[in-house]
Design brief:
alpha+beta, six-stranded antiparallel sheet
Length: about 325
């Protein structure tokens, strides 16, 4: 039996949801889900619940786009900082989705900004896109701190959409793909998973239980941020220069060869200011070897049908 969407009685919510999923996938999303609004309202802290941002929201749509190309994982860390991120594709797809819903169904809809809350400080987001994706069933918490993983697509970037159109929600994943079997074996032998061992900031830790499942995960966000969030470095650097009693020394500090890279990133509008460290994902078997983790894997069957040569994973 069809249940009309509340406030939009002419809309079949099941058909509307399928149309939205299909549209998002045409825009580049690999996975699309609808989070249970009541669960988000219960879990998110006050001030960061969906209704705190959009009071009449009825549904939270989460979508994920693919991470790196297979070739990008070969690049050194200094190059990955510039070329590794595909998050803008997720935001573009979510923005388009919001317009699609309003145009097709007439329901007020909003793209959820992935930005920081100006009232909460430099590490507090307006909304947790990670929580939206996890509750929507398109990602599960990994040992790599802030990162969700998907058993089919591996590492993805996520974006969210709020709408007054009531859609049937999805459920969170029943099984967490992290840790992968090879990670469990390494942990049994060394006490660490690959992401724990190779994190440059050593901000990851945790335990695996007797069944090979996550028992405890510890993520030192401050250590990670100090290593990767360069937008926090600039005000500290300027404050040091201003406080320096020897004005020439303060000026020289701003022109230090290492610090000049910050000015380059400002002038270039580089995304390398933001958490552009990929070393935990570089060694993650799910991020790099999930069945459809990269464009080559996702198009293998198409190339086979066309008679093109296949490429083996290294």
């Amino acid at each position: 039996m069809k249940h009309p969407s509340e406030g939009f009685p002419e809309v079949d919510p099941v058909a509307a949801k399928q149309a939205i999923v299909d549209y998002c996938k045409k825009r580049g999303a690999l996975a699309v889900g609808v989070a249970d609004l009541a669960a988000l309202e219960r879990i998110a802290p006050p001030g960061h619940r969906p209704t705190d941002l959009m009071p009449r929201v009825k549904s939270v749509i989460s979508l994920g786009v693919g991470g790196q190309t297979r070739g990008a994982w070969q690049l050194p860390a200094k190059a990955m900082a510039y070329s590794g991120s595909t998050e803008v594709r997720a935001y573009s797809a979510a923005y388009a989705c919001a317009f699609f819903i309003e145009q097709k169904f007439g329901a007020p809809t909003a793209y959820v900004p992935p930005d920081l809350d100006p009232e909460g400080g430099p590490r507090v987001p307006l909304q947790s896109l990670k929580l939206h994706a996890e509750v929507a069933g398109i990602g599960a918490r990994s040992f790599a701190g802030d990162i969700l993983l998907h058993p089919e697509f591996g590492f993805m970037y996520y974006a969210s959409v709020f709408t007054e159109l009531e859609l049937p929600p999805d459920e969170p994943m029943k099984e967490n793909p992290c840790p992968a079997p090879s990670c469990v074996s390494m942990y049994r032998a060394t006490g660490q998973t690959p992401c724990m061992k190779f994190c440059p900031a050593q901000c990851l830790d945790g335990e695996i239980d007797g069944q090979g499942k996550q028992k405890r995960m510890r993520y030192d966000m401050a250590a990670c941020a100090e290593f990767t969030q360069e937008y926090e470095t600039v005000p500290k650097m300027l404050a040091e220069a201003v406080r320096d009693e020897v004005r020439s020394r303060g000026a020289d500090g701003l022109l230090d060869p290492d610090r000049k890279m910050l000015w380059y990133k400002v002038s270039a509008g580089s995304g390398a200011w933001f958490a552009q460290c990929f070393e935990c994902m570089r060694v993650c078997p799910l991020a790099t070897q999930a069945p459809q983790a990269d464009p080559i894997s996702r198009t293998e069957s198409l190339r086979a049908a066309a008679g093109a040569p296949q490429t083996k994973k290294s």
